Amino acid sequence: MSFVEQKHFGLREGDTEMEPQDFDLLTMSDVAQLLHCSKAHVCNAVNGRVQGCPAIPAVSLGRRKLVRRASLLAWIEANEKAGTMASLGRDAAKRT
Asked: 12, 20, 31, 60 - which has most CB atoms within 10 Å?
């Protein structure tokens, strides 16, 4: 087993297989469906072209981009927390 497999895929010495849920890759269409938006909007988000929104982490395979399900879920949580903190800041500013 290579160092890359251990580091990037979470495999330990002695592990022979990865579980499907450990390495679930989503297409842009899959991500769009999960986020209830267009594929074009997801592509813009992956490329960092959506204002006020960090880029969605993706793996490039030539022109094709894929998103790990775990990365997407982490990205959603980070956006949720950032949005909550921003709205709390606006609310506090309104009160003063």
From this structure: 31
Domain that holds residue 71: 25-95
User: Which runs of consecutive H residues, i.e. helices, occur in 19-68?
Assistant: 28-35, 39-46
This prediction's pTM: 0.68
Local confidence band at 69 (pLDDT 50, 70, 90 cut-offs): very high
- The lowest-confidence range among 42-46, 80-84, 85-89 is 85-89
Could you tell me if residue 2 is inside a domain?
A: no
Flag whether 1 is in a domain: no
Contact 56, 77 (CB under 8 A): no
Helix axis angle, 39-46 to 28-35, nearest 10°: 110
- Determine the Cα–Cα distance for residues 68 and 60; give it in Å rounded to an integer: 11
